[in-house]
Each structure stands twice: as structure tokens, then as C-alpha cells.
Design a protein that fits this description.
flat; alpha+beta; 17 strands; five-stranded antiparallel sheet; 27% strand; 294 residues
Length: 294
């Protein structure tokens, strides 16, 4: 019965009005009475309130019990083997029993990751509130948003997301009052929406755009060029780009960018990146012919 006082006062006032009840102003924090103040509380109305509150309390209690049971259930993590790797630095022995996990291409490492994920997602999928949280987050993120527009030549360029798209779509238009056309839709570059545009730079006259994209969240990026008028991709493919800008030449013949030397096979995600270089790429030419600037 004490749960009735947890209801917001405004809700109780409105409920009373709807049932021709009045709130008795007193130490009872707004007891619902029928007719004039001082008349006995309606047994039917209080019964309905108690039944509603008991149902709500039961639902909350069920969710809490399910969550507590889930939290108290022991997690059985897969065993992680140790090696006998020991390094000596300046006479000090340093053990490194988990170094074998640094080889992300090894079958043993991939199997370890797979078993760890099974434990993790097996726990997460049983959380009762997870679906409710997912739906609420989807509601919060579901709103139209735009990137900052820019103008090159006689064209405007901007990005737009309709709400729940994995990646924002790039548009172009000759006038602000004209219907924009799709220039580049990253969501169509992969089936799972994990190809992201890192940078898109139009040429000075707005006839071409060079853009960087990455896959699956990697820092490695590729640069490609698209003709704005036709929307067609040019054959240029620039690889091993990371932490780079794109600076077009005034005449649109090419642009400056930075890249690293190609890593050894299998070492793209593990090798240290050193000695970044600045190149000039001429549109229509192979990357191997790019001019080293610095």
C-alpha cells in the first residue's frame, strides 16, 4: 500500500479528476477520496490502484531477480595456456608467458578469441534489459543529421545521415535550392556497413573527389577518385595510406598525400609503421609512378 506514495502527485491528481475524486490535503500525501473531503475512501478505486501497483511491482521484481541470478551465475572462462618465454634485459629476467597471443594470425590465437567471445556474448545475450536498452538507443540515434557543407567550383558537397544508417551518405548539388544527388554511399561498399569514409576532398573545380576509406575499423586506408558529373570511379588505387590528408593541385592534375611502405605479407596489422613519406599522385596513373616529395 505504501507504493501509492511513489506515484507522481500530478498523476494521482489527474486520476482523481477522471474518477470524480478529490485529493484530501493532509499528512496522507494526497489520499484519494470520493465526493467532498472527509468522505470515506472508495474501496473499489483503491483496489484498482493496489492491483496496478502490485502488477508493476511484480514485473520489476521479476526483472531484478533475473538480473541478480544472471550476475551471480559463475562465468567459466576458457583456460589460457602459458609459455616459458623469458627475456633478459640488463641482467633482469622478464617472463612473458602470453607472448603467443601477439600472433593474431596463429590458429591458436584465433581459437582463443573465438572461445572468449562465446563466453562474453553468451553472458550478454541473457541480460533481460539488453533488448530494451538497444531499442532505446536506436530511438535516441534515429534523427536526421548533416555534415558541414563545402563549396568547390560551382558545386556544394555535404554528408547526410537519415538516422540509423551505418555510414553517412555524401551528396552534391549545384545550388542550395536544388535537389541534391548521391555522390557516394559507403553503405553500398560492404554488406555489413563496416566500410567508412575517413576523408573526402573535392578538386578545386569540383569536377572530381578523392576519398579515403577504411575497412572494419582499421587505420589502414585506401584512396580512390570519383568523377562528380558521371559518378564513375576512376581506376586509381592508392594503398598503405594512414594518417594522411589529401591536397589537390590547383589545376586538378593530382594531389599530395602520405603513405608508408607496403608491409611484409601477413604483417599489415602487427608491424611497426615507420618512415611515413609524402607523395604526389597524378590522376590516371598507377601508384607505383607517384612522385616522392618528402
Amino acid at each position: 500500500a505504501s507504493l501509492i506514495h511513489l506515484w507522481p502527485r500530478a498523476v494521482r491528481v489527474q486520476a482523481a479528476r477522471n474518477q470524480n475524486h478529490f485529493l484530501h490535503p493532509g499528512p496522507t500525501h494526497g489520499v484519494l477520496v470520493k465526493g467532498d473531503p472527509g468522505v470515506a475512501v472508495s474501496g473499489i478505486w483503491h483496489h484498482q490502484i493496489r492491483m496496478s501497483l502490485r502488477a508493476a511491482a511484480a514485473l520489476i521484481s521479476t526483472a531484478l531477480v533475473a538480473t541478480l541470478n544472471l550476475m551471480s551465475a559463475p562465468l567459466h572462462y576458457p583456460a589460457t595456456s602459458k609459455s616459458n618465454v623469458v627475456d633478459t634485459y640488463h641482467g633482469v629476467r622478464v617472463e612473458d608467458p602470453y607472448r603467443w597471443l601477439e600472433d593474431d594470425n596463429a590458429s591458436a590465437t584465433q581459437d582463443w578469441v573465438k572461445r572468449q567471445n562465446e563466453v562474453t556474448f553468451g553472458y550478454l545475450q541473457d541480460i533481460p534489459q539488453r533488448e530494451g536498452i538497444r531499442k532505446r538507443m536506436a530511438q535516441i540515434f534515429n534523427f536526421e543529421r548533416f555534415g558541414v557543407p563545402s563549396k568547390q567550383g560551382n558545386r556544394y558537397f555535404f554528408s547526410r545521415n537519415d538516422g540509423l544508417q551505418n555510414q553517412s551518405v555524401w551528396y552534391t548539388t549545384p545550388r542550395l535550392d536544388a535537389e541534391p544527388t548521391v555522390l557516394l554511399d559507403p553503405n553500398k561498399l560492404s554488406t555489413d556497413g563496416t566500410v567508412a569514409i575517413g576523408r573526402l576532398e573535392p578538386s578545386e573545380d569540383g569536377s572530381k573527389v578523392a576519398y579515403q576509406f577504411s575497412k572494419s575499423g582499421s587505420d589502414w586506408q585506401e584512396i580512390r577518385i570519383r568523377d562528380v558529373a558521371s559518378g564513375q570511379e576512376l581506376p586509381d588505387r592508392l594503398e598503405w595510406v594512414k594518417f594522411s590528408g589529401i591536397s589537390w593541385a590547383k589545376d586538378g592534375s593530382g594531389f599530395y598525400y602520405s603513405r608508408y611502405d607496403a608491409p611484409k605479407p601477413g604483417a599489415a596489422l602487427t608491424a611497426v609503421n615507420e618512415f611515413q613519406k609524402v607523395y604526389f599522385h597524378t590522376v590516371g596513373m598507377a601508384q607505383a609512378t607517384d612522385r616522392l616529395v618528402y
